[in-house]
Amino acid sequence: MATSSPQQILHDVFGYASFRGAQQAIVEHVISGGDALVLMPTGGGKSLCYQIPALLRDGVGIVVSPLIALMQDQVDALKQLGVSAAFLNSSLDADAAREVYRQIHRGELKLLYVAPERLMTEGFLNLLEGLQQESRIALFAIDEAHCVSQWGHDFRPEYRALTVLHERFPEVPRIALTATADAPTRREIVERLALEQAQQFVSSFDRPNIRYRVTQKNNARQQLQSFLETEHPDDAGIVYCLSRKKVEETAAWLKEQGWDALPYHAGLDAVTRNRNQQRFLREEGVIMVATVAFGMGIDKPNVRFVAHLDLPKSMEGYYQETGRAGRDGLPANAWMAYGLGDVVSMRQMLLSGDAPEERKRVELQKLDALLGFCESTECRHQTILRYFGEEHPGDCGQCDNCLEPVDTWDATQAAQMALSCVYRTGQRFGVAHLIDVLLGKVTPKVEQFNHQQLSTFGIGNSLAQAQWSSVYRQLVAAGLLNVDMEAYGGLRLTEAARPVLRGEQEVWLRRDADPVKRKAQRTERSAKSREPFAGANDDPLWLALKAKRTELAREQGVPPYVIFHDSTLLEILNHRPQTLDEMGKISGVGQAKLAKYGDEFLQVVEDVANGV
Ligand code: ADP
Ligand code: ZN
């Protein structure tokens, strides 16, 4: 293999025609022995960046990964490509581990995945030293490098000790990779892993194939159900909820409605959790209802949607969670239903935790940035990237605000009414009651507090209930109103409300879409988002190709995408190859897979053509 070029390996082993983005530059840099820090979004194609150099350099590439559950799949995928790979972690029994050690000593492996705690044992480091004396370590890849960061929720203390690699093996190139978009984490990675000398490769963090949508919550379950029915009747996806209880309830409800939904949260026992994760990975069309405990390093490429039934905690969280959709580059949806109640419960959760005050303040600011995003009328792709310090021209054609531009309206007067109603009622009532007062409804509560006497009683008849609710939500999101946790969610004015009440500041709000009108537009829109799959689901060949893939995957106990990705099956569907030669030109069909599966898939194409 010593005479191969990266391009040739890309083609022969992986079956791809060309490198993407910075891949080629990274690969060449590492092959020539340089250290690299690779910042690339999920789905950007990070794995090739260390796999190809490992194949082209002498010795074995050591890949440090915190994701024990996924090492098996990664190794399986490499074996499918004809690459000799193995992993070492606590899930291996002693015999299997001994066999891996034998393979290492015999120099049989090109890639070895290791959990950080295993890597850091003195025994393992000694073994590496033995290898290195004969120059038999190709490189160190540090995957999910953001795990060194104390601030992220993926923090792994063992990652901190990885500087030892640099100290004990200075001649071995190191490549650290992460999909984390925020600058502070990047700086921490450089510092903690002693990567000051490494060349940094920063890709755009845009995920152009993800269509972002934020919709106003009115009946979240029904909204989710109709989103699934119209856009994802057969797809795998993730539904995020804030609490374990809601995860359980939502999963149960979806199941009742006939969806193949499973729960996942940290409160489930390890066996159930693992079983559910395996089903999600290995079967088609499973919906995982989960807390944020689910997802880090979920390598499943064909997650077609990520739905949020509750607000994420920050833009970072939102980007990371939605980023699990569409890793294969095919169209995917990020859909969120959001309402005032979410703002209230999220703030409540942040404030009631036992984090130090300063930390709470930071978290509240992060939440505010996310709320600003939710209420924004600008391009979502642009807004997300701007948050991470990247420019985007906007007008993406792939977000709700670009597809159906949202009006803003001069809500100055309405805001004054809404705020003064809060003030007149004593800053202790929730939105429902405030709206009753504005609309002049004589409810028992209004009578009890004698609120029909107030100057704000009935002054709001020019707007409907739903519009007032939109006004209040946006005033809370914008920080003009605070939710008083001690007073059961009553609203209070903040300092920021003063200039508005005094008439010194205008307020412009988004005009929420009318739910009825929205429904009519949805069918047209959803058709577009599934273009590459258009017709596929009804095509007997598509079903036959998927069935063949499932059969092969079952036989070998691997996830279907390890055999072929959806994008490869789609290409077979569209090109209907008739010879092995034509099959070999399909993206994702390298030499090993062509030899292993070429005939079988050609047979499927032929059978379907003959109506078998
Ligand atoms: P990441 O680890 O950055 O999330 P992966 O390495 O899993 O991304 O790659 C994402 C997907 O893109 C995979 O399906 C991979 O096979 C595919 N891919 C990567 N590089 C290329 C390329 N140059 N051409 C075509 N497909 C690619
Ligand atoms: Zn847009």
Structural features, described:
- The protein has 29 helices and 17 strands.
- It is 48% helix and 12% strand.
- The strands form four sheets. A seven-stranded parallel sheet has the order 3-4-2-5-6-1-7, sandwiched between helices.
- It has four domains: 197 residues, Rossmann fold (3-Layer(aba) Sandwich), CATH 3.40.50; 194 residues, 3-Layer(aba) Sandwich (Rossmann fold), CATH 3.40.50; 104 residues, Winged helix-like DNA-binding domain superfamily/Winged helix DNA-binding domain (Arc Repressor Mutant, subunit A), CATH 1.10.10; 75 residues, DNA polymerase, domain 1.
- The radius of gyration is 27 Å and the shape is globular.
- It has 612 residues and is an alpha/beta fold.
- Helix 14 links the parallel strand 12 and strand 13.
- Helix 2 runs parallel beside helix 3 and helix 15 runs antiparallel to helix 16.
- Bound molecules: adenosine-5'-diphosphate and zinc ion.
Characterize the main sheet.
7 strands, parallel
* Cα-based radius of gyration, to the nearest Å: 27 Å
Shape call: globular
The hetero compounds bound to this protein are: adenosine-5'-diphosphate, zinc ion
In terms of DSSP E residues, the strand content is: 5-15%
User: What would CATH call the class of the largest domain?
Assistant: Alpha Beta
How is the CATH topology of the largest domain named? Rossmann fold
Give the low-pLDDT segments: none
Please list the strands of the largest sheet in the order they lie side by side.
Answer: 3-4-2-5-6-1-7
Number of continuous helical runs:
29
Number of DSSP strand runs: 17
The rounded distance between the terminal residues' Cα atoms is 42 Å
What is the assembly state of the chains in this entry? single chain
